[in-house]
């Protein structure tokens, strides 16, 4: 598993955004408050039931509010055969501070 900062993830997306699945594991209300363009909302508690719908060969970047929930999901995905898993260190909060200051925070 990789751990990347918000600017590092922003650079990855800029270079090859479509090549990465931006998996936002926050609750729906959190996702509605703010999210990274192109991200997919799959709340953490639904991941075990949807794991077989995710591409095990895809590059998946896990996102949450501060990075703790996404870390747990990234660990779960790795344990279930996903090879290219990244955790956004600091979560959407770090993204708002370091990449997109116009993004709402909560």
TrEMBL record:
This is Rhodanese-like domain-containing protein. SMART domains: RHOD. InterPro entries: GlpE_sulfurtransferase (IPR050229), Rhodanese-like_dom (IPR001763), Rhodanese-like_dom_sf (IPR036873). Pfam families: Rhodanese (PF00581). Signal peptide: none annotated. Residues 16-104 form the Rhodanese domain. It comes from Oxalicibacterium solurbis.
